[in-house]
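B., you asked whether I could sanity-check this one before it goes into the benchmark set. Here's the sequence:
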Amino acid sequence: MVKNGLKQHEWLQGLYQIRTSWIPVYNQETFFAGMNTTQRSESINSFFDSFVDSTTTLKQFVVRYEKALASRHEKERKEDFESRHKSRILRIGSKMEYHGALVYTKKVFTLFQDELVKSNPFIKEKISKNGSCYEYKVSSCFDSRDSFLVSMDLSSKVGTCKCNLFEFKGILCRHILAIFHLKNVVEIPSHFILKRWTKEANKGNVIFENTPSFEDDLEKSAAARCLHVCRLINQLSSFAEKSKEQYKVIVGDLDQIFKKVLTMEEDNISSEKPVDDLIHDAMESQQNQSNHIPLVNIGDPHISQTKGRKKSGHESQNNRFKKWS
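And here's what the prediction gave me:
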């Protein structure tokens, strides 16, 4: 700004004062899932470009918006299925790589695997040691700019790197992985695994709504009630996986709930009228309605003289001759 004579520019001065809010270098220690300042708006715009344009009406927008969400949900379900059921291609064959393939989704594992592969050609130089706490300078053999300090507590396997990749993206950087390899750490520590990047991120997530609109949907829509119950059962299933005790409690209570609901269903069936009675009531109702309909006499329509068949040209010519004769 000083170099280009813009020091007194009011708008640029305002941007400079809030530079810590929008310049990435000031936010490397803040988790953004790897997104930059404009990526979110750009991704949303590109997503809707295939569904709406400048000529789309409001009615068309509502319909296409629902289609857009449905396509996104279908894509997420497909990716979840592939993450859970498709095997990964291991490039190194190490236990660390295998552990990452077990816990991470397909896309996140690709990013983690790339960092793991790049962690091999690094020089680890010990700077200091204090008990179980170490500080290393990790430098690339090929890029002098790729050199950062790593602080590591080997007893708890808690560490930080000055590159702040984990703080910014939630994925371990190559520098920490290089120290793990040096110290024979063969699995990713649990505190370095974000649930949002795991295969089970969407499993058991139930959002409890207390808004009036949500309650109205449950009262009016059978589909909303079914979806709500499915989400609750899905969350219970995730708890049942954790221990046998939780499994026994869940199964026991669900059995009681099933018996109670089955009794309610049988009571509803017994309270309903037989089919013959329903038919009889419908016929009586129809008969009562017919008795209140006034009788109207409808006579035959008036008979009018028709013009008859159209005369041919020969007949018309004969008539003209008779007239002149």
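One thing to flag: Residues 58-85 form the longest helix (28 residues). Otherwise nothing jumped out at me.
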